[in-house]
User: Fold this.
Amino acid sequence: MDPVKASPGLPLDPWEFAGHFFTAARTAGFEPGPFGLIDRVSLLAYTRPGDPSRPRVYLSAGIHGDEPAPPLALLALLEAGCFDARASWYLCPLLNPAGFAARTRENAAGIDLNRDYKVPRSAEIQAHVAWLRNQPAFDLCICLHEDWEAKGFYLYELNPENRPSLAPAMIDAARNHCGIETATTIDGREIAEPGIIRPVSDPLLRETWPETIYLREHHGPLQYTIESPSGLPLEQRVATLGAAITAALKAFLS
Assistant:
């Protein structure tokens, strides 16, 4: 599956993106659920419940507005039919529409939304947390990002129950589209394996919480944050993220 080719375009305007995603989601059987309104753009979650015996998978993107590849990767995967009957799906494709419009990491108030989950100040994260509290526990969560400092793909894994790791499958799949980050220290943390960070200290002790720590504490034991390097062409970043997710889902749902 090539998620870039599956997409008819790469909509970089938040209103245009929201329209594309809404249409593709309804076609795929998803139910949209608004949980906030930011700059005239609805914050939307899309759910597609499946057989109750099957896993519940959550994916999010667009929390940093200067990282356009993650929302576009979710859209491309949706259009390619990736989110099928293998699981129940919970998608939040654009958590920072104001930042997406302005191409800023932060929201319009200058808040980094991905550091706002411990004691939320922003309207976006207050709304997102309120929506999450009404959802079931997730068996797998993947948060999509890109990194302006990275030279290759990498990921964070939070897996306190030592469940079978999906990290090697994602690294192998991403390698087909871009290099793997070669740094031995990424974001101040030593790697566990090339391109893989597994925090050693208790992440709950951090003064500020990103989305993945909130999810780990309240919504499930298996969390991944995946990062493509922003210096690559946009289509390549989208393809890299799409390949990593496709591989993770294949390994997890098989």
